[in-house]
Amino acid sequence: MSVAWERLIDHIPQALHPVTLQFQQQRRQVFEETQQDFWYTATSPILSRFLSYSGCTQQQQEEFLSFYYASITPLLGLSPQQFSQRGMKPLSFLSDDHTPVEFIWVIEGDGTSSIRFAMDTLAHDGTPLPAKHCQQMLQSLRKVGCVKSFDSTWTDVCHETLLCSSSTASTSQFFFGGDFAPTGMVGKVYYLPHARAQITGESEDQLVTECMARLGLSVGWNAVLSYMSSLPAETRPSTEMVSVDCLESSRNRLKVYFRARDRTLSGIEQHMTLGGALDGEAVQNTLRVVRNLWGFLFPGVGRDQPLSPRADKAFLPGFLIYYEMKLGNPTPFPKVYIPVRQYCESDSQIIDGVSRYLASLNISVRRDYASEVKRLL
């Protein structure tokens, strides 16, 4: 979930989580109020609350919050007030309301939780950081105590094949992220190859093809590309970005994200299965999850009935379908982001739908989900 941009303008948390409060008091002895302080004060209560659900010890929570303050908040750019004072519009497109950071509460099938974050890296003037800063950020992770495992083999290849260091593009070329868990933090990078494609004249798919060849993932990627190439141009999902973890090759996963134009369940399933080419128990289980969530989130909307976007969200791009690939497995695995803010009428509809879905699985965290999310809104 992202922090609603308009809510940050007057946001002053009244009651912080104990770990957040303790860390706030410590750092205020050293730092004056800055952009960094604004973003930490506005967003850390959500992160801290989520971390309390992750199974992390208090020491780990403090380490993650310290990392978030020292390494992430300085790169979130101008505050909403500063953008307004300068007559500027926010440039980040990480979320639909231009908030440059979002937190993800991952609820597993057994009820356990882990926490993730994603961020758009911005300079102090609010503009996207150049591609060269991506490598600098990654190398700094080697010195972070809460990062227990780090390898840049795949990120180096992605940087060389998908980004353009000489570009002066006004939009971001990469996002940064990570997973917080009791085993430590794992870094992640999202690469957006549009700037390099524009400068070199190559398509995004050609750039990804070169990247896949160097990583040894061509078989899975060719299956995805073959299906996408078979679709008419007006209905074909567009290639958006590539993500990899900062782990050694044998443990790493690469994901390629496509933005779909289709707004029907049947169309989304068609893309997820590459026109029926992907099957098997794991894929069928994933499709069942999507169908169940669809029914809870969009009651009464049939398989072939297009969703209608909210009037104020009609400009948004739609479903994000992605395929996970890794060494030793030539078959890509499909997943999908459901853009609930675009197609649900309210936060209450989203909360109710997810709560009923969790209840249908008899996951114990369902009793906490609705109350926790409402508390954070």
UniProtKB/TrEMBL annotation:
Q: Which organism is it from?
A: Cyclocybe aegerita
What keywords does the record list, in alphabetical order? Answer: Transferase
Q: A single GO BP annotation from the record?
A: alkaloid metabolic process
Q: Which family does it belong to?
A: Belongs to the tryptophan dimethylallyltransferase family.
Q: Which GO terms describe its molecular function?
A: transferase activity, transferring alkyl or aryl (other than methyl) groups
Superkingdom of this entry's organism? Answer: Eukaryota
* Listed name of the protein: Tryptophan dimethylallyltransferase
Q: Which InterPro entries match?
A: ABBA (IPR033964), ABBA_NscD-like (IPR017795)
Q: Where is the signal peptide?
A: none
